[in-house]
Input
Amino acid sequence: MLSSVNRRLTARFVFIIGLLFMFLGSAFLLGSLAGISRISVLLAFLCVIVGSGCAVLAIKRNKRSLYLFFAAFFILVGFFLLLSALRIIPVSFSEAWPLISVFSGLALFPAGWHRYGRFRNHYVVPSIAFVLLGCVLLIFSFNIVPFSFTQFMVNWWPLLIVLAGLILVLVSLSTKNNSDDINRRDSKK
Output
């Protein structure tokens, strides 16, 4: 019995070390190509490894939606950093930093789906808000509009109050609908 437990632990350890060697070897191989920074590629692979580790924890642990969020987030960030380091996406992270907000919003979708088995407003509304916030900040980061973010905030700050009110209305409506569904189910019993 003890030897089967030792075999499983050894197999897991060898599996993890093998994955680590695969990722590090790939990172250094890609980093040695035509002037690509090894550190940026290594950072990208480390993000992917952390995301993969969170995915494994999502499978093994009870708080799966939390680990799924971090898994999706780190994998998205890692792939973006890798594509940026390989110059497939010709944008530096200093210009595309608002993508962190977009990635956070996108990572909430699988976490919410896993937790409830369907899309719920508790996750969808913040997800959309994070994605929209990131897209708005990207517009200013890439200088698509002819004015700065500061000028926008000085002139359009009431729009933030309107958007906050809209989000609160959507959240309250979803809470009301959910409580109505619960009351109907309880009355049928």
The chain has two domains: 1-90, 92-183. Residues 149-188 form the longest helix (40 residues). The chain has a mean pLDDT of 79. The chain is about 80% helix and 0% strand.
